[in-house]
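Title: Prediction job returns without error message
Component: structure pipeline
Severity: low
Priority: P3
Assignee: unassigned

Description:
Job completed but the reporter wants confirmation the result is attached to the right record. Sequence as submitted:
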Amino acid sequence: MEMFGNYPLSPNTLGIQQQFKKNYSHIKLNLIKLTTMNNLNSIKNNLLIISDNIHRNPYHFRIEVEKNGIQIIKKNGFLREKFFSCFYSGQASKKTLHDLINQNVRDLSNIEREHFIIQQTSETTELFIAVLKYNQTIERTKNFSATLGSKITLNLVKNPKVLELNPSKILSVKDVPVSESLQNDKPLVRKENRLCTKHNVRRYPGDKIDHSAEAGRIFISTQKERLLSIIGRIIEAVSGRFGCKVTAFQKYHYRQHNETDAQIYAEPISPLSNALLEPTSFWLGHASLFMSIPLKSQGGKIASFHIITDPVEGDLNTILYPRQTKFALPIEKVPPPDLYLLSHNHLDHYSKDTVKKLFAQQPIMIVPQGDKSRYSSLAKELGFGDANIIELDWWEKREITFEKNGETFSMQISAAPARHWSGQGPCGGHESTFLGYVIQGHEDGDIYFAGDTARLNDDHIKKLQDHFKIKWNFQPGGPDEVRKDMESTHQASVDGLWMHFKMMIPKIYTKGMDKQEFLKQAKELKTIYMHTMTYKLGNLHISDTKDSIAKVLEALELGEVESLNLKSYEKQVYQELCDLADGLQFSSNEKLLHSEAALLLAETVIVPKIGSRIGLKEAKVNQIKNVYF
């Protein structure tokens, strides 16, 4: 018989005690889990603070103890940092910080894989990203004398259960020779009078337009639209109180159709998957992409390497050009990039504040010809060198070799032409060049990031076809309006459909091939939109890209345009797509029907939601939850 002290327990009492033990064990287990998670969350934040501030001295940090005894690292402000450096023992401060960080490192080196990678889904956790960022920061900044790592010894997290956390090392960056036909194809450079002085400017062939004047007209149009939208919001709010609905101002609002956040933003997901079989892209917003590219070593091992393009977190101008949608993820929580690519230096693609945050991870920074000096000055300001900053002009190529887990991996980056311009302010137009990029290294095909561009000429499209095996194509979605001020430097959203057919389809098509085989191969080619849904420029709305593409595909499916109210540039692309489809000849005299072309494009062209991660190999618009179209 069960006893409580010297007293026997009745069956009822025994049942209550057993239930209490069960509940107590459950509560105790939950408390242990909660304590563990709180501790790991604090460690994660500690490592992120160190990673993002590796260029600081030990006095920039202080340690606070929470009620549960967990120690957390906080940043000191300027005055507190000076106070600490003047009145506290340097060695004591360094030792305290050293001991805490390395205790955190030891703790993380012994925990289970499930804390880093969710086994059922291969999703990486925030802790995984924080440790990967910390490891890569420590590894790549250890030779800089002005960093925290030179003041105290910082160890790497080495968890034998999670080898993916090991940092990648940059072994070499080599110039790759290109054919003579590409070497001689450069932007036109000539002296022009600007507001301040004469400059050597770079222009796309045939471009003679005064883009500064264009920018002025777009600025006036934008401010007019924003003012009318603000007035409209006030009138709509007042009239709503009296039961009246006013719609006259709807056309001026950025969310013209009252789009909800659920229609714009994806459900939260890690930007990084541990499934290494396919490349992925996480859309941070505008032209900011975080790509994860699996590469295969000579020994047959696979590891992913990461690229970030044109990262800009904030407003172009807080008052005049505010950001209309949120950056998907704070840059502090984005995994560490191995490469940074800048297409051109306009402020919606280049952000000094965002770039400064990336220097701690020391990625290879590839920038257009003429832009290295601004990056070198930032590097010097933060205490880093500029050896990783590389300038490229049209068609120049670099091969980057990495080492990870004892294996060697290679990736090639080629600068491609863009039909655009550069400059910050009235005195700086066209001084640096403007680029797209082709990323080579994945065994299934190449990735083309078009940057910001108007339609390329036939010569440049042909060169992209001939020299690359482009399978995944990132295209800008406008701005679409007003076209008279946009068409010389920005293609319309529907021009991305034309580029999909014009540039990629010829690589898989041969005259007389089987139609079903053609459709099978064509469905593997993907175009993903970016450079949209972020800033209001002129008569621009958040749904322009989605709506414009939908109208052209509907016209192709129905075979007529009159009832769909297509704009002139949409009619042009519709007709061009019809002509391109009609030009395909298959076996048994089969043709590609316009409705089949519409279905093919609907399955392979994606307008994602902000914050969505897309697996590029298997991405289909009707299978992805986080797509806008």
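Comment from assignee: result matches the submitted record. The first strand starts at residue 3 and ends at 4.
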